[in-house]
Every structure is written in C-alpha cells, then in structure tokens.
Amino acid sequence: MAKEITKREDNYSQWYNDIVKKAGLADNSAVRGCMVIKPLGFGIWENMKAQLDKMFKETGHVNAYFPLFIPKSFLSKEAKHVEGFAKECAVITHHRLMNNPDGEGVVVDPTSKLDEELIVRPTSETIIWNTYRDWIQSYRDLPLLINQWANVVRWEMRTRPFLRTTEFLWQEGHTAHATKEEAITEAELIHEVYAKFAEEYMAMPVIKGYKSENERFAGADNTFTIEALMQDGKALQAGTSHFLGQNFAKAFDVKYSDSNNKEEYVWATSWGVSTRLVGGLIMTHSDDAGLVIPPRLAPTQVVIVPIPKPSEEIMKVADDIAAKLKDRGIRVKVDTDDKKRPGFKFAQYEMEGVPVRIGIGMRDLANNLVEVARRDTKEKESISLDSIDQHIDDLLINIQNNLFERAKKYRDDHITEVDNFDDFKKVIEEKGGFVKCHWDGTVETELKIKELTKATLRCIPNDEKESEGKCVYSGNPSNKKVLFAKAY
Amino acid sequence: MAKEITKREDNYSQWYNDIVKKAGLADNSAVRGCMVIKPLGFGIWENMKAQLDKMFKETGHVNAYFPLFIPKSFLSKEAKHVEGFAKECAVITHHRLMNNPDGEGVVVDPTSKLDEELIVRPTSETIIWNTYRDWIQSYRDLPLLINQWANVVRWEMRTRPFLRTTEFLWQEGHTAHATKEEAITEAELIHEVYAKFAEEYMAMPVIKGYKSENERFAGADNTFTIEALMQDGKALQAGTSHFLGQNFAKAFDVKYSDSNNKEEYVWATSWGVSTRLVGGLIMTHSDDAGLVIPPRLAPTQVVIVPIPKPSEEIMKVADDIAAKLKDRGIRVKVDTDDKKRPGFKFAQYEMEGVPVRIGIGMRDLANNLVEVARRDTKEKESISLDSIDQHIDDLLINIQNNLFERAKKYRDDHITEVDNFDDFKKVIEEKGGFVKCHWDGTVETELKIKELTKATLRCIPNDEKESEGKCVYSGNPSNKKVLFAKAY
User: Fold this and answer.
1) Tell me: the pLDDT tens digits for B467-479?
2) Which site from B45, B213, B280, B355 is most exposed, i.e. has the minimal number of CB atoms within 10 Å?
3) Is B96's CB within 8 Å of A96's CB?
4) Which chain B residues are closer than 8 Å to A337 by Cβ?
C-alpha cells in the first residue's frame, strides 16, 4: 500500500499524526500552531455542528454573533478570568501597513497605533456580558439563551491538530438567568446535551462529572465536564458547561429588576465544545488501517466501487443502488474514477474511514449479488441486490452501535479502583486509563499527585455515591471517589 | 406606538439605522466598527447561509477552513493585492499580556513580540494559495473547488451595520483549475448562482455584469458582479466572482504538470458574498412600519397571535394550525405571552418583518374563521379554518413573488438612459438609480465622473448589446453602454 501509517502500538502519537495527514483531515499551515482543516475534517465538523445546533435549538437556544476583538481592559474586569487567559493572547496593536521606506515589502505603519490594544477572543464572556448590560433591564428580558459559532485564539505553546491549536472553531453558549437555580439547571441541561451528543453521535462513551476547583474554567463557580478515554489510555476533556454564578454580572454591572422592582445581579452560564471533538473522534475509533468514522457523522456513509473498472452495466447498477440509498437519506458516493485500481481505492476509502463500501463486480452481479464491506470490523459479505438498501440501512445502525460498544468496553476496562498510592502510580504508568480513588479534596494533594504522576483530576463523577475512605495520597478522610488520568 | 421609526422620505439613512436597532437585527459593540449580530439578524444570515451552502454543494464545491491569520510577508507577494488591502489591516504584534507593573490591569508583555507580524485576514487568497502549492502537483489534483465560511476584518473608516463593518461574516470560494477557460466558466457559474440566490431567495432583482478595470478586486483579471438597487436610488454591490488568472499561482509558485508532464501555472477564481446581504435585504423591502423579510429567508414565516389573550380554546386552535403548517415545512411561532396587548404585539411583529400574522379571536372563531394579515401589503382577510394551511402556503409564495415584482418595478423604473452629461448629473442628483450611458472605456473618465457626481461605474451589463455612440463625458467613441450610480 502506498500510504502506510505508523502502528498504534509502535507510536500512538505518530499514528495520530499519520491519520490526520494521510486521511486528509488537516494540514499544518504557515502560521504557527494554526491548522488548515481539509474538506474531510471539515465535513465531520459540519455534521457535528448541524446536530449540535439542532439540539441547542430544540432546547430553546438561538444563535447570535459577537465581535472577534475584545478591548484589553475588558479582560481585567473579572480577576480569575484574566489570570486564566492573559498569558496566551493574540494582541492587535496597529491597524495599517505601509510600504517599507527602507526596501521591499510592507511594514507596520507606526502612526496607526491603537489607543487601546485589542485581544483576539480566547472566549467571549467579557464582550458578551458587556453587551448583555444593554439588553437586560427587567426579569421580562430573562432568560437570554444565546449560542455563538465562532473561531477563538489561544496562544498555546505546544499544539497538535484538532486537539490543541492556536486558532480553533467552537460554539460558545452564554445564558443569563434571574435565579441561581435556573442557571444551574441550564448548565446541567447542556451537560446532558453534550453527553448525549458524544455517545449517540460520536459513539464516544463519556463520564459526566464536575471539575475540582483547581480545574474549573477561569471565572466559573462550577464546571461540568464530559470526559472520554482515548485508545492510548489518556483522557480527553470533550465538553464543558460552566455555572458562572454572578461573577461576570458583577464584573460588567449587569442587573435586572425583579417583579417587585428590586434590583439583582444576573446569573450566568457558559458552555462550549470545539473542533477538538474531531480529534477525540479520530482517537476513539480509528485503527492501523486509518480513520474510522461513526456513520451518523460520516460525510460519506457509503461508497460504491465498480470492479474491475466502470462499465455501462455496472454503472447502472451502482446508480440504482445509490438512488435507493439516497431515498433513505443515506449519504452515498459512486466512485467513477477509471484511472485508479480497485485495490488502491479500497485502501484509500479505508484510510478515509468510509463506514461501508459496496463493491460491484461482473461475477457477483451474474448471481444478483454485490460485496459489502464494513469499515469497523473489515468483514465482507455478499448481499442480494433485492435487499441491498434495507441491508445497508441496518448495517449503518449496527456499525454505529458496535463502535460505541467497543469503545465503551475499552473505557470500562480502563477504570481501575485503587486504595493506595503505589497502585495509583502503577496503574497510571503501566495500564493507563482512569484511576478511581479517594481524594482529600485539597488543591495541594491534587497538584502533588500531578507533579508525581502527570495524572490530573479529570472529574468528580455525577453518579458516584458517597463512601467513607482515606485519600489515596494524604491518607486524610474523604467521602467520595474521584477520577484521575493522564489527559490530552 | 412605542417604537416609532424615522420615515424613509424624511431621512433614509436614519430610517435604516432605526430598523436595524428597533427590529433587533444588530447592535453597536464596544469595539470600533464591529457590530453584534442579534438573533433576528443572525437568523436571516443563517437562512442565507444554508441556501447558499446547498447551492455551492450542488455545483460540486466542498467546505474547508484556513487560518484567521496571515503572515505579513504573504500580503506583499501579489503587487495589486497588497495595494488593495494593506491600508486597512488589523495587525497582531504580540502574543501575551502581563500584569501592569505600574498599577492596575494588564499591559502588553514586550517580551512576547512576534518575529513577523500577523494580519487578521481581510480575504484569504494569499494564505490559501500558499497552501494550494502543497496540494497541487498534477492535473489529477485539479480542479480544487473549495469554499470557506469565515469572518474577515477590514479596518474601514466609516462603518454602518451590515453594509460596511470592520469585522464581517462571509463565504469565500477559492478554486484552482488546469485551464483558463475552465476558471472563467467557474467564475461565471458562481456569478449565476449569486444572481439566482439574490432574485429567488432575497427577492432582490440584480443586474449581472462585470467591473471596469478600476473597480476590479485587487489581484483579479476580471470581476463579475451582481448589482442591486436600494429604495433611496443607491446601488449595492451584492456579490462578486473573480477570475484571477494566474496571478496568485505565480505569486505563490503553484504549478501543475499536465498529462504530457509539462509544467504550467494554475488558474484561479475567488468569489464571495457577506453579511452585507442582510443590509441589502433590509433596504430592498422594508417600509416605514419596519422590517420586511421575504418568506423564503424569514426565521419566522408565520406568527399566530391569540386575541384578546390566550384562552384554552383559542390556544388549541392555534396549536392545531401551527402543527398543520409545520407539517408543510413552514416556520411558525405561536405567541403565548399573556402580558402584552394584541395591538402591541401586532406592531412588534410588523417591526420584525414576520411575513404572515394569523390572529385568532372568539368572534371569528364562532364562524370558523381566523384573520390573516400579510406584512408586505398589510392587507387582512378572514380565512376559513378548513383551508388555512393551504391558504398560508399559497400566500407565502404570493408574498415572495410580490416582493420581487415590487422591487423589480422600482429598479426598472430607475434605470435611465442618458446621452449627455447634463442629463447624467440631473438624473444622479434628482432621480437617483442607475444611469445607462456610453463611456469611453478609460479610467480617467470614470474617475472624473466620480469626482463630479459621486457616481461610480457599477458594471458593464452582461446582456448589453454593442452599440456605437459617444462617451457621455468625453465625447470619445464608445461601443457599449454601461451603468453608473451612487452606491453603498
């Protein structure tokens, strides 16, 4: 095969980079840490976007759009927020270039210096809450349930395609509420939406929980998270939903008058998922032959390949099948290229993760059969033309479920309970995955564990029951087990 | 009425600003020249986007995403391009803030200065063609038919919501071809797509033509344009499609080898429409009562309002109608607010441009009737409940057509042929609209006319036949009439 990729067991990190490159998901760009999202990678993101957007709208949210730029002074208004973001900002200082007086090219025109520098948004709480002040006067103006699809920039030191890039695409919800309870309910609702999306569409099992104070979003009172597990045993934070209390309302002086004309600060949430999910999808399902995409998010769900090459008769059968599948709402492509050999094409579609491949050859056709190959297990079977559309419909569901179950089994097999620090270290070092253990609830212990093992506190699971025990590191009393893991 | 707006004849410009503000389309932001697109404005843009995206995909294009930032040196590589964009760039010079050593807040960390400044993309030809160099080797890699939905920034001196903003949203197509003919055909295809979208979806008649050399995109060999006419007699450039020749391929050294292994530079097009279209939509159809939205792009096509206020019986009828309309794919909203009076609601929905309003009152209901009001003509009629869904379906089509015909009549009435410069000035000054006349084909004349009248050469119409005549300004020979107008 022309396009071999590194095996996962040899070098997982290189395997990931190979898939991104050779399946045509993304490319590096000329700008440090910024990627080019190629049509296949963007097609997956588009399908994610469409589904999430539908789910947000079904739960009463509307889209809007706020400026890319944030005045520098806005960032400082919420103390923790500025601490979290000031160190990785793209800063705009000028607004004009001019011909280089000393030679070729253009230089910054020094007379175009801005009075106040602008920051390219790393997240939009500040500019949005500055706007909400004008939009909210009375309880009648609440709740505000607004989402934005946008690009954001964080000047990260180490970047990897999709997982951590200087610029990335995301959605950020920013809601405003009259009461604390309503805001918490909203943050929890979105937490559920994210978990449902991850499991039912990405076929990626997640653990729902909330973050320790140390791992919270900068400016939040509570951060809900969904945590997934990649095939190398490292966790991936896949989506977060924040209860922001009245922090941003106080920073930007956003008050409402209640039905008794009493003024109160507004309660807030924010929540986001990003193109990082594409990285999570790749690492959850793909194998040593290339990308594997869950059918519900695959830009092309079925590809039809004539064997050995397109003849009129075979193309007619291909077009008939394609038409039937399209009628069922299946995204299908007929390969009409007559320059490449079938073997080459098969490898290419495997690399690109197309869930189902239908091969049409003269010999099979004589028996009214076509060959159907599924990408997840690589199994092939001969299927009668009479029932091909129903078969494919069922198969796509089957693949979607199989991918989820396979990933869930791996994940469940990699949650290891420990009650002493030696076991903790051993599991993190050798087996990987989540370590479940008692923790004394202090930042000191959390940071010490990180220092010693590189594992971070991923979350305090929602469904974890209270239980008396001793912290795996300090031995101090604890009443709940939490999850640690190395993470992306 | 609580929300009066300026009348068009009193002050068209203020009328426009009032509509934007009071219909809740957009707000000014804390960042100079950047607007906040509010849910109604964004909802219109979302519908535009969905339809255009569909049309691009139907013509074989795929979406991708390229970096927000462009290295400064890239801009200089195409001589005309840098001339067109260097003077209005947001320039990033640093990547970190730090606590102010002299007091409060944060300041730019001087140690974070970038080696090379980055420009926030004003358009993406340069970064994209720098990428295409890696993607294109052989004729087999062509054509590349890629579109991007993105935000761009141009540091404009005077800004107006939607029509001209520092940051705006748009799509930009960037295609690469093996031959000149193929590239020209692509630019013309998109020109057709834009015209079809403007007329069939926005109900906004446009003139298809191409630009004079002086008005071309910076770096193009030819610029196709669609030109619309606003109600104040000023033209609006609504979409452009550029044949870029080999200019960017040469600037970024993008060659392909043809089937004989001969190397040649690649041919290019680029094309875009932006949130400016929302401004065009507002100004084409709206009236002194507020916004008017063509049904095909209206976020809410039908609103159902109980009169005098929601009772159980009325709500049941409302929900029944809504369900029937939804079944037909109509976007319908039932107003369940029992705090506001119907009169207030009616004015509000008029302001927001909802194409059809259904009022349900007890008296009408006793006769099996509801009141249907159309936004475009403000006519009302009583319609039987038995045929309400079919009636609404027909009415929406009727409104869409009526808006187009009304706008087309206005536009056609405002194309005035002149053959001397006194008439030219008189028409531009008094009547407005397009002036059709002979022009000698020189930049000098074009600029002189602009200087004297503020009218610019909008386009050389596609369907204009050759005819012998004398330039309206210079008296020099001309073989084709062109269109001048004052423009946004």
Assistant:
1) 999 999 999 999 9
2) B213
3) no
4) none
Query: Alpha carbon of A319 to those of A206, A218, A354, B451: distances in Å?
Result: 39, 54, 18, 60
Question: In chain B, positions 147-176, which contact chain A (CB-CB < 8 Å)?
Answer: 150-151, 153, 155, 167, 169
- What is the dihedral sign for C-alpha A46, A52, A58, A64? negative
Q: Sign of dihedral through CA atoms A347, A349, A354, A357?
A: negative
How many whole angstroms separate alpha carbon B338 and alpha carbon B308? 9
Q: How many CB atoms lie within 10 A of CB B38?
A: 22
DSSP class per residue in A265-332? EPEEEEEEEETHHHHHHHHHH-BTTB----GGG-SSSEEEEEESS--HHHHHHHHHHHHHHHHTT--E
**Do B117 and A108 count as a contact with CB atoms less than 8 A apart?**
yes
**Token pair 């193309």 is at which residue?**
A315
Return the SS3 of B216: coil
Query: CA nearest B63 in A: which residue?
Result: A39
Q: To the nearest whole angstrom, how far is the Cα of B380 from the nearest Cα of chain A?
A: 30
Q: Whose structure tokens read 């989820």?
A: A404
Interface ipTM > 0.90: yes
Tell me how far apart the alpha carbons of residues B176 and B130 are, in angstroms, rounded to a whole number: 12
Nearest to B17 by CA among B281, B283, B227: B283
DSSP state of A371: E
pTM (2 decimals)? 0.96
| B402-431 pLDDT per residue, tens | 999 999 999 999 999 999 999 999 999 999
User: How remote is the C-alpha of B209 from its chain's centroid?
Assistant: 17
Say if A297 is an interface residue toward chain B (CB within 8 Å).
no
Residue whose structure tokens are 């187009």: B404
- Which domains, ranges and CATH numbers included, belong to chain B? 12-285 (3.30.930.10), 302-395 (3.40.50.800), 415-485 (3.30.110.30)
